[in-house]
């Protein structure tokens, strides 16, 4: 998940372009529309949950603008061809356009989120093994 962007305050000029939905990951908050202040992606719009943290903890909802549009289409908020960055109806060429300037595709974000989930599961497993080992040590000491 590309969560290394410094953020600015929500951009009110963009408020009517795309709908801000309730987070589809945690369901607790409405998503935010922000602009990156990182050198490699300065000014690019992204959407994230208020509960999202830059260090990868918290809610995993985070999309570049183009991917947010695709997410809105996937969940039925937008129809195909309904929105483009320029405000025009998208045509087939726009649909095929690659992301630039450090943008990540939805597939890359999904695989990153999967890696984070896997690492969390491994950490939980290690913690459980540690707890079992400590309990076994106490049992062994009590037998003496």
TrEMBL record:
<feature type="domain" description="GRF-type">
    <location>
        <begin position="23"/>
        <end position="68"/>
    </location>
</feature>
<dbReference type="InterPro" id="IPR010666">
    <property type="entry name" value="Znf_GRF"/>
</dbReference>
<feature type="transmembrane region" description="Helical">
    <location>
        <begin position="118"/>
        <end position="142"/>
    </location>
</feature>
<dbReference type="GO" id="GO:0008270">
    <property type="term" value="F:zinc ion binding"/>
</dbReference>
<keyword id="KW-0812">Transmembrane</keyword>
<keyword id="KW-0479">Metal-binding</keyword>
<keyword id="KW-0863">Zinc-finger</keyword>
<keyword id="KW-1133">Transmembrane helix</keyword>
<keyword id="KW-0472">Membrane</keyword>
<protein>
    <recommendedName>
        <fullName>GRF-type domain-containing protein</fullName>
    </recommendedName>
</protein>
<keyword id="KW-0862">Zinc</keyword>
